[in-house]
Amino acid sequence: MNKFVSMVLAAAFCASLAFGASFSKTSNDDLIKMAGTVAPKDVPDYRIELHKRMKTMKQDEAKTFHQKLEASMKKNTEKMSVKDMRARREAIKKAMDEKIKGMTKEQIKESGLEHPHHKHKKTHKKDMEAKPTKTAKTTDTKSSTTKPSQK
Predict the structure, then answer these.
(1) Lower Cβ count inside 10 Å, N or C end of the chain?
(2) pLDDT below 70 — which residues of the chain?
(3) 88: burial class by Cβ within 10 Å (0-12, 13-18, 19+)?
């Protein structure tokens, strides 16, 4: 009987890990401490929970909460190498793309996963290279004046 109960508990634990982390029962202080250390696959759910909490706060409370999150994230990631940070960022981007893939635009906006700066595509460099650039004509007043000759 004990084996059966332990197997059921183990299966439930594995299932909870497989379906992602739930941050709804986590306190604000714990969420702040987790900043920068959350597994990349759980970051979308973490950000959704942060968005929900900040929506319910007053503006100054949300601002203070956000500042604490940023400070904690900076502290928790300051010892990471550039290579590790880039790998983490890529893993988070993939997890975010996977989460967003099955959502409508309204759901994405409501969840807080949409950010205006993410909409901008970085294709403008190619476009700018193909188009001729206009050079601004500048007049240099110093060069147009004549210097008195020294004798």
Answers:
(1) C
(2) 1-21, 115-151
(3) middle
